[in-house]
Amino acid sequence: MVLTEQFILLQAPNPAAAENGRKLWKKGSFSALHRTRDDTLYWAECAGSGKNPYHVSIDWANPDAPVCRCSCPSRQFPCKHALGLMFQQLAGGGFEEGEIPQELADKRAKQAARAAKKETAADAPPKPKRTNTAAQKKKLAKQLEGLDMAERMVDDLLSSGLGALAGASAQTYDKLAKDLGSCYLTGPQTAFTRIALAVRTVQQDPEQAERAYNQALRILVALRSTIKKSRTFLQNKLEAGSFSPEDSALFEALGGVWKLEDLRAISSFRENVRLVQLAFGVSFDQAKKEYVERGWWIDLDAGNIFQTLNLRPMKALKYVKGEDSCFGALEVPVLYIYPGEGDRRVRWESAAPRPLTAQEQAALPALAQPSLAAAVKATKGAIKNTLAPKFLAVLVPVGRLGKAGETFVLEDPAGERIVLRDRPEDGPGHACTARLAMLPEEVPAGSALFGLMFYHEGDHSLCLHPYSVVTPEKVIRLLY
Amino acid sequence: MNLQPLYDVKERLEQAAIAGAGLLGEDFRLQRAAEQLKPLAGASPVFGKIDVGLTQLLSAPAGERSGRLLDLLALVDAVVYTQGKTGAPGELVPLPTGGGQYQELSYGQLSPLLTALTTTGGGRMEIIKSAWEDRPELFSDFRVLPAVVAGLGDSYGEISELNAEILKALGPASLPLLKEGFDPAGNKAMARRVEVVSALEGAAASPWLREILPQAKKDVRTAVLAALGTNRENTSLLLELVQTERGANRDAVLQALAGQDGEGVRAFWEKELEKNSDAVKFLEPSNADWAIELVTSGLRQRLEQFLDGGKRPTYEEGTNLTTWCWSLGRKDSPMMLDFWRWVDSRVEKIDRIKDEKDRPFFFGVKLTERLLDILRHTGPGPLRDYCLNLFDSHPAMTRYLSVSFPAALLSCPAAEVFEKYGPYILTEEPTQDAEQKKTLNTVLLRALGDVWWYPQGERYNLYGGLSTAEPLDIRWIERLTRAVCTDVPRRGGASPFAYYWEDVPEFDRTLMRLVNPGDERCRELMVLYLRKRLDETGLPYHYSRWLIQLGDSPRGLFGKAMAKNPSANHLYVVWNLMHEASQMLPAEEVIALLEEFQAAGAARKQAMAHFQKAIPWTVEQLRAGKPFPDWDDWEKAGK
Predict the structure, then answer these.
(1) What distances in angstroms separate CA A13 from CA A18, A318, B225, one per listed residue?
(2) Across the interface, which of B66, B74, B110 has its CB nearest the CB of A386?
(3) CA distance from start to end of chain B
């Protein structure tokens, strides 16, 4: 494995730790730099605030998952000292060959023994999963009961009108929504919270009324559809006595959380996939009170676009490692794909980053949709589904980029055009269309533009919110 | 196909959902929209389906309306999406390219900086500042550069000033952004743009400045006028403008003219200073020969009229003379040396200038301070040599010691400096000429207050940034630790550790700034001194912390000193001090200090119960080989 800055950043528990590590390296805080002959272990001393320096080491026995050790009392893992040592290693500076200190050798041996034990356990045939049928039956019945309650809530809400959802009635809905959580329907519960939030926005900022009501209505439409489809889906399961997960987006819409083993059980996975991240962004979900770290990826072989979601609830922010932008390619041994349509969510247990080769980079723009028309057709097909998000991530070929009047426009090689603008729902943190006018260089021929295609209510048109320019030489991120 | 009827139906359905499905029967606008859709219904099956849905909705019983409304909205939405148009008419103008670069910077690296640059709230200055210090390359990224330019209008003045400095340092990359969308009638942000463009382009900015000048208003005009001074070719324009501009704008033109050269300029300033003596302040940064000549001759002339004591300056005349003194700025030339010699030859008389009420103006002191400031920023040369000998030639003029001593530190071997000036530090009470000796002692201590050990550079620096010729002789520390007259005026500034309740003498602060912790002898001397001071003053926080920083322990004196003022011993400050100790001292030493603290009963009364639990627990943790507990754990342990 080639050590890259990107790899170091991915190891860091948070960006601040990486930056602090970088500062240590820049300050020259490391001394007594050593490495083994086979380059699998690096160790050094790092000056800290204490009298005695910290002993830091990085064990590269498994190059994809280095083991970092440090004598500092930090609870962050890896700590800034280990990350700093990685930067030192990346800079290639002055490691002398040396004998492994006994303490490290002992720890290494213990680590190897643990890994071997884990491997043996992994090789053993998996224990058959036992399903508690009675409990599952009870859960399904409870969910059906909850769906009835959700339907009544929707009916009540629409009878009196969204405009009447204010003050005390909004609080009542919040409470009722919590009851849906007790019925294992966290999806509809969140939908009601979102509606209440949208209505509160109207009260706080009447100028946002049109957008907020529109948002609330789209949620209601999706909720109605979820209730209707889920009722049939759950009743069929209950009658058939089938309690195993199924390849259906409804499971998630109801609030279910996919485990990797369940995705494997429904064969929703692919092996040996090469991914490249096209864009990355973070938003805050007010309804769920969590940060959503979303990465957009393209499959180098099939050209599919996937998304990764790292959800970090406020309450558990320090326990969930934050994700960051990923440059270069990622070799994924097993890619688990969530059920659904469009840009499906993916996850993986392990992946190896590596630099993108010039050939791979050059081939990236060719993975774009054949034309703008094809991308538009795919988007229309996707967003008309009531359960699907109202956008589709697309990679479209670029003929020309420019401005028609004050409007940013993409023209594909066939001469078709689309307006480029920021998606209002993404908020100011994702506003990046204007950065197209600040690109350091002209977009070369044979490039593509990646972004989210969406329907714009204002002029009844489909627009593209550009996220990245994919040229044969590089991916220029307008966002992160 | 005209889709307006479809959009109207959608809008009415949405309004119905907001107003309430219960009112659907009375919604005549919806009924009219449904009527208008009928022609489309015949044209396409999907519109027909909407038409049927509308009929069913309007005739549905109240209990079914909500469901039907949402189903119909879902259908209408789907149709509207599929009918969404694309395209953008008009000529396509290629996009310009910016001056920034693209770098592979991750969210974690970029987002905090962009947030700090583009939002409001506290803590942003620190983020921008440390990013600029640690990773200046981030600022040339094409996503960051526009934010820095926009940040010139930041509501927090310090941030906008920092942004201006950053843009100046980044070079011409931001010029297109600075000039794009420039509003000559704009606000302070636009004025800062002018300032940055001028700094980046220098004289080359002149055509642009001349172009925007006619439309420039308020702050922007002032900035443009000042910036015109960077080009010598603008002299005639500035000489015209100075006749027409008023107020702050005229001041800006004067500022610009101070940077110009030539006979015309000199002639203008001669006349201007005759009419407007205070305008001399604009010549403060100028180092041109004509400016030096005008300032020095003007100042001499103004001082001379008061030297014989016959005439006394009024308040206004005194203030004006002070302005002339300040206008000397950091001027350094052979002509200046003549001026300083002239001052020196008349210094007693200058000192005697008093106002009508017999109050001194201290012009002599002010001029000496100017000389010292120039010395602090001037390299080797005749001025430094002059300063070096100043005190020798006037030993009675005690304030000259504050000039000659730093000049010696900057130019002479360390031993020589100590041997010459060290004796002025009194190590025993003087019996003869006590007042003179004590004054010299104080002047020297104040001068030493301008010297400090700079650990990053491993050298001694003087206020102003210059380094001493050699590291301080260790005998200074030996002598200072034995000093008897240690009363030095407070220099200002907070406690180095935020222990604001302890009033540590300025002398000890000065001494600690001189300590090179890497010098073993210096460390030894200071440890003895600090232990003595801890015992004498009973101020445990500063002296213990200094001892700990030097790798020593306040053991034996700690408990007693802490018990002198138990009310200061809050749980957190004690934890903080002991945590610092744990970073520098072995665990046994920390245990001993904790036990000493407890045995002395030094805990704050209100936190006594906390301490009684937290200290034994911490001792136990340390004995078990665990690190000193974090604050959260220490606090919890005490509950």
Answers:
(1) 8, 9, 52
(2) B74
(3) 76
What residue ranges in A349-399 does DSSP mark as E strands?
352-354, 391-397
Q: What residues 57-116 of chain A have any CB closer than 8 A to a CB of chain B?
A: 73
Q: Which residues pair with B354 in a beta bridge?
A: B360
CB A234 within 8 A of CB A143: yes
Beta strands in A26-168 (DSSP E): 30-35, 41-46, 54-59, 67-70, 96-97
3-state class (DSSP) for residue B548: helix
The predicted-structure confidence for B455-471, as pLDDT tens digits, reads as follows 988 999 999 999 999 99
Residue B357's pLDDT band, with cuts at 50, 70 and 90, is confident
pLDDT of residue B486: 93
A451 is written with which tokens?
């972004």
Query: Do the chains contact at A158 and B14, CB–CB below 8 Å?
Result: no
A278/B contact by beta carbon, under 8 A: no
Amino acid at B156: Y
Where b means 16+ CB within 10 Å and e means fewer, B592-619 reads: bbbebbbebebbbeebeebbeebbebbb
Interface predicted TM-score (ipTM) of this complex, two decimals = 0.87
Considering only CA atoms, which of A61, A71, A41, A69 is closest in space to residue A115?
A: A61
pLDDT at A414: 93
Q: Give the pLDDT score at A76.
A: 83
- B70: part of which helix (H) or strand (E)? helix B62-82
Q: In whole angstroms, how far apart are CA A25 and each of A51, A60, B134, B151? A: 19, 19, 11, 31
Smallest CA-to-CA distance from B18 within A214, A426, A25, A24 is with A214
Rounded to a whole number, what is the distance in Å from the CA of A460 to chain B's nearest CA? 6
For tokens 């929209």, what's the residue? B33
Predicted pLDDT of residue A81: 94
How far apart CA A369 and CA A76 sit, in angstroms, is 43
Q: What is the pLDDT of residue B495?
A: 78
At residue A465, the pLDDT reads 97
pLDDT of amino acid A396: 97
Question: Do A391 and A467 meet the contact criterion of CB atoms below 8 Å apart?
Answer: no
pLDDT tens digits for B24-48?
A: 878 888 888 888 888 888 888 888 9
Residue among A316, A255, A311, A314 at smallest CA distance from A282: A311
Point out which residues pair with A329 in neighbouring strands. Answer: A276, A354
Interval A422-431 mean pLDDT: 90
Cα of B342 to nearest chain A Cα, Å: 49
Give me the pLDDT at residue A180, please: 86
Max intra-chain CA distance, chain B? 120
**Interchain contact, A162 vs B109, CB within 8 Å:** no
d(CA B73, CA A384): 12
DSSP B474-486: THHHHHHTT-S--
Q: Distance (Å, rounded) from C-alpha B130 to C-alpha B193? A: 23
d(C-alpha B11, C-alpha B459), whole Å: 75
Q: Is the pLDDT of residue A132 over 90?
A: no
- Contact assessment for residue B261 and residue B233, using Cβ atoms and an 8 Å cutoff: no
What is the spatial distance between Cα B103 and Cα B325, in angstroms, rounded to a whole number? 51
Pure H helices in A241-312? 250-253, 260-265
C-alpha A110, offset from chain centre: 34
Integer angstrom CA distances of residue A182 from A143, A232, A255: 9, 21, 12
Q: What average pLDDT is seen over chain B?
A: 92
Report chain A's mean pLDDT, rounded to a whole number: 88
DSSP state letter for B360? B
Q: B73 in contact with A at a CB cutoff of 8 Å?
A: yes
Cross-strand bridge partners of residue B85: A461
The residue behind tokens 């992946």 is A351
